[in-house]
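For practice. Any example?
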Amino acid sequence: MVAFTVLSQLLLAASALAVPTSSERFASRAARRAAGLNRQSRPKIASSGLSAEFTNSSNVDYSSNWSGAVLVASTATYKSVTGTFTVPSPKEPSGGSGEHSASAWVGIDGDTCGTAILQTGLDFTISGSSVSYDAWYEWYPDYAYDFSGISFSSGDTVTVTVTATSKTAGTAKITNVSTGKSVSHSFSGQPSLCEYNAEWIVEDFEEGSSLVPFANFGTVTFTNAKATTNSGSTVTPSGSDLIDIEQNGKVLTSVSTSGSTVTVKYTG
């Protein structure tokens, strides 16, 4: 019994050591950026790998990097977007090995307006037996920057919000509801937004100008998903454009909306 207890303690210790600390993850990403491997979200990249017959069977658009829901303004413009989701436990896709990532975020623009995007979200990465999470903010076309002073674990509840105070200024805020910790960043003097799009997205983001290997993120469900227009009215994703990720002729996600909920499932 004593030997079993000691062995269990050693296994637990080894497991704990396999998970990088927040400071180690931050240092690792800083090193990759210094080597030119900057992490960046991109505007929606249209996918043309599916046949017209297949695409016409659905009301979903296809992209190589975005999956989720996008509201496209006809007259009103969007000033704020928010959503809440549970931090998933990513896995390597079937047949995959090495590091795989995905990211969940909310943003303004990037679909019908691709010149600038105000966004914030959480990356989730699986590498062997290690899982890590990184919160970030970005005003595209600049790169993403990591928030410091906040951490996340699988099962935590996270709320992400972006607010445009003007077309060239705004804030990005992320809150770990489970721990009560919140961080934010203010922008000014940025490239002009159009404020045409409000979105709730799971993305295959870029690092070093290439899409990262896409993780099996399970399901990300944005709840309490809302956007505020320039007139002050609040709208939900109901009736939004839906987007699924398609890569190399294979659809990897399935998205749906209901009221103020956006559900993105990995299907690859």
